[in-house]
Every structure is written in C-alpha cells, then in structure tokens.
TrEMBL record:
Gene3D superfamilies: 3.30.450.190, P-loop containing nucleotide triphosphate hydrolases
InterPro entries: Gtr1_RagA (IPR006762), P-loop_NTPase (IPR027417), RagC/D (IPR039400)
Species this protein is from: Schizophyllum commune (strain H4-8 / FGSC 9210) (Split gill fungus)
GO BP terms: cellular response to starvation; negative regulation of autophagy; positive regulation of TORC1 signaling
Catalysed conversion reaction: GTP + H2O = GDP + phosphate + H(+)
Primary location group: membrane
Domain of life: Eukaryota
GO terms for MF: GTP binding; GTPase activity
Cellular compartment(s): Endomembrane system
Family statement drawn from the similarity comment of this UniProt entry: Belongs to the GTR/RAG GTP-binding protein family.
Alphabetical UniProt keywords: GTP-binding, Hydrolase, Membrane, Nucleotide-binding
Pfam families registered for this protein in UniProt: Gtr1_RagA
Highest classification ranks of the organism: Eukaryota, Fungi, Dikarya, Basidiomycota, Agaricomycotina
This protein's name: GTP-binding protein
PANTHER family, alphabetized: GH16429P, RAS-RELATED GTP BINDING RAG/GTR YEAST
Amino acid sequence: KILLVGLRRSGKSSIREVLFADMPPKETFYLEPTMRTRKTVYDTLIPLEIWDCPGTTTAENLGAPLSQFNALIFVIDMRDLYTQPISRLVEWITAATRDAPNLNLEVFVHKAEKLPEDDKIENFRQIQERVADRLLDISALYESVPLNFHLTSIYDHSLRESFSRVLHKLIPSLPYLEELLNVFCANSQSPKAFLFDVHSRLYLATDASPVDAATHGLFCDWLELLNAFGGLF
C-alpha cells in the first residue's frame, strides 16, 4: 500500500492519473479537487494499492493505521509558499516515526516544469533545508530519519523515474531481478537493461550500471509508442 498525501492542488491526483490511468498531462488541469480518499488498485510485479488522499487528510483522520502502509509519498508544489506544506509534512513524519517506524518516507517536490532551471534547483535545496531544520527543532532524534526527496514533473520522465525508485524498496525479489539483468547484459553485450511494467512505464528493476536520464527517457518514449500502436499489430 502506498499513501499519496499533500496539500490541496499539490498534484497528487495528477500523478495517479498520469501513471495509472493513461491521462495525458495537459488534461490534468481539468481534474476536480480530491474530496475523499480514492483507492487505485494496480497489478504489476507486486500488487499495488495507492491511496490518493484529500488535502485535509492527517494521520489522525486517515481512517487506517500508518502501519498498514509500505510507503508514504508527500507531494509539495514547488511554487507553493513553503510554511504550510512543510508543517504538514513534518506532522506526517513525526506520526510515521511514532506509529510506523519502517514506513518508507518519500517527498515529491512536484511541478518542477513551472520554474527556470536555476530557480528549480534553489527551491529544491531550500525545501530540504527547511524540512531538516523543522525536524531538528522538534528533536535531534529526527536527524537520522531516512527521508528521500525527488524533483518531479508530469511533463517529463522524472515522475516515472522517481516513482520507480519508490517501488524498488517494496519489491522483495529486487536483488535477484537485478542479478538476472546483470547476467543478461554480460551475455548479450547490452549496455543497459530495464525490467518495465509496460502500461505504467515504471521500471521495476535495472542492471548495476548507472541509470542515465536520456536512456531512461528513450525507453519510456518507445513504450509510449508501443502502448499507442501495439494493438494495431
């Protein structure tokens, strides 16, 4: 189970629709605000259940214990004034540390396409620093909480790469899959190999060589073409 939370209009529903419902990114502009929790079941190498929660959701009114979930993704609109979303994120982190210490905590700094490159990098850095400072103000114990930040956008492949990295932590057989891909590359002299879920274009495993953004993007574009025209053949 993956919990998708964040303030209103941060982009949670857009992420869910683009990844798992094939919605074109430009059409997400017309999505209605999420008023109740929407659960999306998606069957891939591991069965997924994604809870897309309204912006008012907290750990107290979630309706389920955090210990039921394997990962929590908090979505921040990187153009937002950071005080309110960071306060809400800190609330989720403290609740997760208390009630579900094994929960994977991920932060998607979203809508990265809205800012120039320099501003994007600076905002991304500032958000990480402010979250760390707020946690340190509460207790020095939170300094060791594993918190992963990702810069994402529905208009490029960064969202799929980041969500793929979240999934990797949830797949028990990942080391075996990676070793199989290493053997495949060695025997076929292939420079790179991915194991993709074709429909969502999320990669479930890759070989030991570094993931190059350009190569990953090329694979995603090819799969998009396959999904669009594969039925004709």
